[in-house]
Amino acid sequence: MIKTNAPTTQNPQSEEPWAPNPAQRLERGFNRISQGLPMLHPRVHVQAVGFHKWKYFWLGIIVTPWCMNVILAKGQPSKWKSIPEGRRLHYPFPAGIYDFISVKDRILGEYQMCSLMSPLEEVVSDHDMAVEIAKAALEELMKPEQEPELGEPIPAIQPEVDPETIEKAVETAINRPISRRSFLRPKATQEEQES
């Protein structure tokens, strides 16, 4: 076998080391935060669900007793956009474009979040259900937007009011004489006119 000094075709960007998976750090941080909160779902606890590499980021959902958020965290450091807290970034997922808010927390560190549900009581009965919802949400995020099939007929949109009726109503309103007094006075209700 002959060795050559030809350059490799591998993308050097793909060799950049990734930041550690944030799942355990987020679970520890949200557990600490939960100790000081009064309004918590009694049957839900903190869990990081489905964290995996997506494009240049870590993507997953954090389930807590008070909310459920989609999280984007630093994956490849050179691709991470650090923006002021509270600012929004748009990310194109297969299911569509979603807004994420920048968070910089002394306990949780820096990440970006998209609110999925808050509070949980109205929808979620227990922790298992919360985790199932989180998993389903991640799956839906990765499903392409539904597109109409090629050649599918588009249903005609029927106007709610006949255009001729609208024209007649406008014409009548324009031609009706209006005194200055009646213009400035509020219109009488049907009951007032009949009495």
Characterization of the model:
The protein has helices at residues 23-34, 127-141, 163-175, 180-184, 190-194; strands at residues 47-54, 57-63, 68-74, 88-93, 96-105, 109-117. The protein is α+β, with helices and mostly antiparallel strands. The chain has a 6-stranded antiparallel beta sheet with strand order 1-2-3-6-5-4, with helices on both faces. A hairpin with a 2-residue loop joins strand 1 (47-54) and strand 2. It starts with 22 loop residues before the first helix and ends with a helix. Residues 1-13 and 178-193 have low confidence and may be disordered.
Short description:
This protein is of the alpha+beta class and 195 residues long. Helices cover 26% and strands 24% of the residues.
What brief labels describe this structure?
195 residues, 5 helices, disordered C terminus
Secondary-structure map:
Elements (H helix, E strand, L loop, with lengths): L22 H12 L12 E8 L2 E7 L4 E7 L13 E6 L2 E10 L3 E9 L9 H15 L21 H13 L4 H5 L5 H5 L1
Antiparallel strand pairs: 1-2, 2-3, 3-6, 4-5, 5-6
